[in-house]
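Researcher: Here's my situation. A collaborator sent me these components and asked whether they could plausibly form a single complex. I don't have experimental data yet, so a predicted model of the whole assembly would be a useful starting point for our discussion.
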Amino acid sequence: MFVINQEIVDLTSEKLRNRFGEAILSEEAEMDMPVYVVKKEIIADLLRFLYDDETLKYRFLTTLCGIHYPESDQPFGVIYHLHSLENNQRIRIKTFTTIEDITIPSATAVFAGANWMERETFDFYGILFTGHPNLKRILNVDDMDYFPMRKEYPLEDGTRKDKNDDFFGR
Amino acid sequence: MKEDIRKNIDPTDVAGNEVHEFVTLNVGPTHPATHGVFQNVMTMDGEYVVDTTQTIGYIHRAFEKIAERRAYYQILPLTDRLNYCSSPLNNTGYLMAVEKLLGLEIPKRVQYMRVIIMELARIADHNVCNSVIGVDTGALTVFTYMFQDREKIYEIWEQICGSRLTTSIGRIGGFERNWNEKAWSLLRTFMKEYPPRLKEFETLLSRNRIFLDRTVDVGAISAEKALNYGFTGPNLRAAGVDYDVRIASPYCSYEDFEFIIPVGTTGDTHDRFMVRQEEMWQSMSIINQAIAKLDAMDDKETFNANNDFFVMPPKEKVYNDMESLIFHFKQVMGEIDPPKGEIYHAIEAGNGELGFYIVSDGGRSPYRLHFRRPCFIYYQGYPDMIKGNLLSDAIITLSSMNVIAGELDA
């Protein structure tokens, strides 16, 4: 189980509110770590701010992944897991975007490791990371013309008639 | 001596007076030196690597997509195929993530048994990695010897779960059955016979003049760079950062054990080798402590959590009792719904922090399951580590990073 360092969590929330104000859309304590939903415009600044802060020191990007909620107004999201190794506190940051303007500022300027993670997210969700040095497909073939992790692409072949698994799964 | 060689290379000076003729060299996708299916297109200046372009994804199997259609039990075999050198670590990590989502309390006995299989898996993983460094430096003998010991670990797993490489060991809440006598006796024999063999392996390589010349100062990375690239596990610790998930956020009762986190200083190939070597000794000590703790327990029967809802009924009941059969079917086919929520759970796998991020909407399968695969993240640091080195050094660097294609490509 992850240890929650309440002092650092409170400090993080306070500093983020002071610095970004309205751009922090929500904050709540989930089961294992605090979660912040923020506006996408500030995400790169926010990561830089958390990285540079002398007490918080969120200097380790654990992972970054995309998510798709087709019913939502802002269907595409990117989820960052940050870790402050010195304080041993993890936080989760989410940011969402619409399909019309499917861009999110890149985190590669702060974390070199974000490079491939963002390429993977682009590969599977088609989210365009602005400022990324080399945004192209990484795991799928280059000439693929769709983004397979989007919910509209079913796992099974839709043309098959011999399989009926309506009772199992979505 | 190596420092002087690096100064001779000036890759930027292509248009200048001094003419460099670069050669493009394909290493991989299938090449004995890559130990897996991935490609490096290297730009070479003579014997020196100027730059490399990595191509990965040759064995991408869309696990994250498949997981969105499978019930939680059915995802377990997918995790086997991430880092297939140490499947039990992936299995147990995934199971613990699901248990965290379900809020299951796991009995101490089961936790200690899991610690044993996880540490065995770590030994098997490091064993392969370190002996492969031997192969790439020209010492094939150690590899053939060390593979025998990996075989013995596989025999233990075979007794516990019935399979050897892709184990799918454990079930939600614990194990599918109690460990049999054979498993315990094999484990105890292994614990007695392995240390002298590991010692012999260590003496063959660790201070061998040729091995030192090939590994010291090769493929070094600084702690700052390693952290920025998201390195974890032995590769990060070799650079001098003492981050270990077992200590930072203990899971599975690791707080009950006494062990040391070995760290290196320069982050070169030799440091990575020595960190892995010391971790194997520490794993042996953890297993010994776990066996002692289990021996001291009166309870010899508990092998899973006491929860009728999420934990599978025992096999004898499934075969002889209608209700249990139905319940077993419902669990495997995913008619037992987990709560809504999001969790991230991480374990210290063979290569570093292996994370599972589960988003559950209360349905039979995860809404989103993301694997944080340590290989995928730290392999991006590879070009930085080999620039200016010899090609043969690049090969050793690759094997000492322990890049496993299954984990790389998911």
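Model: Some features of this prediction you could bring to your collaborator: Residues 6-20 of chain A form the longest helix (15 residues). The beta strands of chain A are 24-29, 34-38, 60-68, 76-84, 89-97, 103-105, 128-130.
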